[in-house]
Specification:
Blueprint lengths: L7 E2 L5 E2 L22 H4 L6 E5 L2 E5 L7 E2 H4 L2 H6 L2 H7 L1
Antiparallel strand pairs: 1-2, 3-4, 4-5
Length: about 90
C-alpha cells in the first residue's frame, strides 16, 4: 500500500507514518496464511471483493463473481465475532 496514512496509533499501538518514498518491487503475489494473531485477516486474499447485503459480509475470493458469505468461506469468523453485524463493523 503506497500513500499517506493518518497520523496516530494503529493496531497494537503501532505508529501510522507516511510511506517511505521510492520504488518498491513486489517479489510475488500469493495467498499467505498466518497461524498466529492475524490468522483470520490473512486468509482474505489481497484485492478480494467484499460486499455487504443486509449486514452480512460476502466475499468474492478470486474476483470471478462467485460471491459467498464470509462465514461460509471461513466459518471461524462467526465463531470469533459471534454474529454477522459484528463482522461487518470490522470493515
Amino acid at each position: 500500500m503506497a500513500g499517506f496514512r493518518r497520523k496516530g496509533s494503529g493496531p497494537q499501538d503501532m505508529k501510522c507514518l507516511p510511506t517511505e518514498s521510492g520504488r518498491f518491487v513486489i517479489a510475488k503475489i500469493e495467498r499467505h496464511i498466518s497461524y498466529g494473531k492475524y490468522a483470520l485477516w490473512s486468509d482474505i486474499s489481497w484485492g478480494a471483493g467484499l460486499k455487504f447485503v443486509n449486514d452480512v459480509t460476502h466475499i468474492d475470493a478470486n474476483n470471478r463473481g462467485l460471491w459467498q458469505k464470509l462465514t461460509v468461506y471461513r466459518p471461524i469468523w462467526l465463531t470469533t465475532y459471534k454474529n454477522e453485524a459484528a463482522i461487518k463493523k470490522l470493515f
